[in-house]
Amino acid sequence: MAFQPIVDICTDKPFAYEALVRGADGESAASVLARVTPENRYAFDQRCRVAAIEGAVAAGILNTDAKLSINFLPNAVYSPAACIQLTLKTAAQVGLPIDRLIFEFTENEEMVDPAHVANIVATYQRMGFGTALDDFGAGHAGLNLLARFQPDVIKLDMDLVRGLDSSLPRRMIVESVVRLCEKLAITVIAEGIETVAELRALEAIGVRYVQGYIFAKPGFRALPPIAPVLDATVALSA
Question: Which of 88, 113, 114, 211 has the most beta carbons within 10 angstroms of its beta carbon?
Answer without folding.
Answer: 211
